[in-house]
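<discrete_fold_record>
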Amino acid sequence: MKMPQPRRLRKKRSPLLNWKLADGDDGSWTAFVPPRRKRLGKVRIAWRLLLILGWTLPCIPVQIALLLLPGRGDAWFSRIYWSGMCRILRMHIRVIGQPASRGADGRPVVYTSTHSSWLDVPALGAKLGASFIAKEEIGKWPVISWVAGLGRTVYVRRKRSSTARERDEMRARLAAGDSLILFPEGTTSDGSRVLPFRSAFLSIAEVPVLKDGRTAIVQPVSLVYDRIAGLPAGRANRSVFAWVGDQDLASHFSRLVQERGLRATVLFHAPLDPTLFSSRKELTEAIWQIAADGAATLRQNRPARPLTVTRPEAPAVEAFA
């Protein structure tokens, strides 16, 4: 009879045995996930969904009531809601710089942020009491459309014929005291670069929103997901955060909620006065350059600080507190 070996003497399974030949003909190898780990992954996904549902449902009537009441209680509560969502997703938000606010001069703010994922919404919503500008398709998504509607999201179409109507709606929001969050890239990216900003998205910055003819101020924002499992995020694992191509929301969410130690860094740069730029194209280029440089610094895990316009050809601008 063969006596069992003590546990400390048992041969450990080689990590190489956790890989198997893929079914395709390319001869590639793919990771083998034990059935038990798959089951645990499904439990984590279901648990996160229950937490999100349990947090969202009680918040809906509160937000509806605040929308019906005067004042800015809805903006205050939306920050609480998105902060709770970040906690459920186990994502810490680090802030560098100071977000601009509607000061004594009464000018509202248009925040122009880099865009790589649907995670940008809870990350920015937790720190800014502002409404998002989103594409029309989001208004047709189940559940998400309810949350976006309660946050007074402004939907925009890709058709040129509707540009004037949407611009008037955004102008009315700014004139009423709301600030707006805009993603000038127009789409998500892989997180390793910042796509060029579209000047058409910044047409609202040229429209007078106050009775004295003044416009809103514009603040560039760099948003980068720079930690995963508590370690610096690199090109190899940046896809955990990025939501690109034809990837569906369910598969992206399923992968994300199984990770821990997530962190997003929001870098607020010095606000700009649009009236000090000779054209919308010049304004768009200045905002893109600042946001892209700040994002590159964060991706490289270097010390970051708020940036201002430093190009010689750009006019000097006043920073707003």
Strands lie at 19-21, 29-31, 91-96, 109-113, 131-135, 154-156, 180-182, 217-228, 231-232, 262-268. The longest strand covers residues 217-228. Helices lie at 35-68, 73-88, 120-125, 144-150, 163-175, 249-256, 280-299. The first helix runs from residue 35 to 68.
